[in-house]
Request: fold
Amino acid sequence: MSIRVGEAASAPDFPVAAKKLVSNAQIRQNVRRATDVIRNKRARVVAEVDDWEQLRDAGHEIKEHVLRHLDFYLQQFEAACTRAGGVVHWASDADEANRIIVDLVRAQEATEVIKVKTMTSDEISLNRALQAAGVTPYETDLADLIVQLGEDQPSHIVVPALHRNRMEIRRIFSEKMNLPDLGYRPEDLTEAARAYLREKFLRVPVAISGANFAIAETGAICVVESEGNARMCLSLPRVLITLVGIEKIIPKFRDLEVFLQLLPRSATGERMNPYNSIWTGVSPAGGPREFHVVLLDNGRTNVLADDIARETLDCIRCGACLNACPVYRQTGGHAYGSVYAGPIGAILTPQLQAMQHSQSLPYASSLCGACYDVCPVKINIPEILVHLRGRVVEENHAPLIEKLAMKAAAFVLETPERLSLAQKAARIAQLPFTRDGVIRHLPGMLAGWTSIRDLAPIPKQSFREWWAKRQKEPRL
Amino acid sequence: MSVKQDILDRIRNATGGSSITSETEYESINRHYCQVGVLDPAARLELFADRLADYGSPVYRCAESEIAPTVAGILTERAKTGLLVPRDLPRVWLPEGFYFFRESPDYRELDSSEGVLTDCALAIASTGTIVLRHAPGEVSRVLSLIPDYHLCIVFPAQIVETVPEGIRQMSSFATLPITTISGPSATSDIEMTRIKGVHGPRTLEVILVT
Amino acid sequence: MPGPRVGLFATCLTDTFFPSTGRAVVRLLERLGCQVDFPMDQTCCGQMHYNTGYQAEAMPLMRHFLEVFRDDETICIPSSSCVAMIRDHYPKMAAVSVDPAVSRAVEKLLPRIFEFSELLVDKLGVTDVGAFFPHSVTLHPSCHSLRSLHLGDKPERLLKQVRGLSLIDLPEAGECCGFGGTFAIKNVEVSAAMLSDKLRCVLGTCAEICTAADNSCLMHIAGALSRQRTGIRCLHLAEILASTEAGEVS
Reply:
């Protein structure tokens, strides 16, 4: 089976990638500005909602329920969608999904497709597979268009081009759309994108989309968007192919009442996003004549198999955890080496790959808990991070030096005698490094500390030594 | 062994498989969130109008008998000669002296039209949302999407306060294509500045029938 | 009549690096009429190992903790991260141990554990501890205080009662300082970037002293304050509260 999460398997470790990005002032500015804006917007619209906690609880419970009965709900979805005229395909991994989709496009003799934003397609590297088969995919979300024309990678779930400022976007559009006199205002850039894409919407006969929610009861798909490009792709072309991760299922139509409140407020800080499209199979009243759903596993069953970490699949891809994360804020998404970045990316990416790759990601966190506070479906990300760290160690992927140091430390901390002895030994060992009452350089693993911080030396008398002495002397 | 069977097997290995108690378990999910609104119809209407104003969508108010002249006034102000309409839109709403065409299957014709006039299936006040149902004879998806201008007629009885109430009403036509519209299309992808009007109709105006 | 007996868990960090904090806790609690006990067999709660993925190595540390503090009615811990470790994770570790004795011991332990400001405000019912500390101070709330323990404004209320102390609000207070235990070593660059943001906020207050309920955050922040020769120092909340006209406790 070839499970793939974009290029995550070959991406540099997080600390290595992060080092480069932390030194990039432009990226840090862009990321900080963007996350500040959405954070504040989200906070305002969430504060308005008196029953926010109850909505989060319900969202969590609904998702947990679906996962427990996923086999039942997937089959219910397939039956309902098929009854409505849709064709349902199943794909175990990235390669299989790509093959199915390429075959469907080829069957139309189409050489172009228009695409609605779907991270799932980035996960399986669909564009590369299409291009290899002689099909040109056009991204139609403005940010994905920027990323595609800029020959780049997305850096955020909801605002993928967050790492680009307007000067960079203007340069990309001007070059790739052949508009030498393009203006610099955001309005000019949006106008250029509108004209460029409209021509394709009206002409290209095949579209590929993802899904925010797939409703088991009715076989419907719901797509949530702001720009209108999804509406274009979902209703104009003759053939529509929708790629759906198996975790996107929700039980009934009514459950939208929970998720369509949680998602817009968490993702873009709006009461409701501009457009939602819900459709079931093929409609006699217009729209695509042919509709295909590709249900994708690609490692989701690996996540399902871990009781503690399973709730990773509750995720509704709002991106709120990215905006809240103090680590993400310093690096942006590229540091994670995966289409899924930030806190959710740190737990989803390695699990999809059965912990074979991306093992540095569970450590890309200070466990501050800000993500858990904002997650609309209450995924306990810090707990899962610690659990996955345990799996990294248990499954033998931890660095040897670290393992030895941790075992040594555990040995010392197990008894008071060893701890006392270690304290005394450390007081002696630190002498060569102590100058004028401060330590500025330490060797080996500890050099990381002193590279940016001083260390006050271990005091001559530990607390327990003070206490022991005090017990012997009369109380002062 | 089909791929579908493989996937279902992997799921069952992971979860122990779904039991027949899934329906009872579904019913026992705690739903302590607010499911009905508290506002009276007049307050709902005002809330809805407020939200539309927030989005920058002009709101016109008139009595039901005055819809046609109101449409005429708006078209004159906008220097439009006519609009596209869905087949079943009540003719009594259409004023004399303007052209009202049924939609064309040619997307480019839709693209170069002056705009579209529709009613709606329902509206949600708290989020300023208009819901369109795309049944035969009613506004189609492409008709409500391609033209650059959309004038929508909303009746007070169609307005509910909360999202759960809206979804409940939508359940009665859950298998029809549905579009919800909450303000004009927008993007925040360029330095987080919210720019209106990318692909959907860049102007959305609403006639609230009072 | 003797005051309440309080068992002190100093934490391995404070015992080794910040004995002054331990001494301050003892002096303050005695001043408030408590009888303080320090079980000499104590070592470490196991947080560093548990959070780094060495959960098996943390197990004997937990068992040892449970044994050492088996009999103390009230346990004071001047570290919100250690309290969070015990409250949030000991029950899970007990479940993993599949040892009913351990589960029982953890169940009996949890109601007896108090973070330092919780002990003062909730258990002893005091916010004015008779302290005098004539300096400007800013408070870093720390992630575990905020999001695990939900200490709320307890540390603040205690500080506000200190005579002579001028408390200055810290901007972006809820942002993590970047310590995160082994994170500070495994992700030096990002830890430094986060620390630099925290420092910017601390410096902007023009306070003389940065305080917190956690020496782990303070060690990290103080390290940068010292490296950059800012002339600002860090002091654990207990050391401020233990200060009187007679001088800072040392």
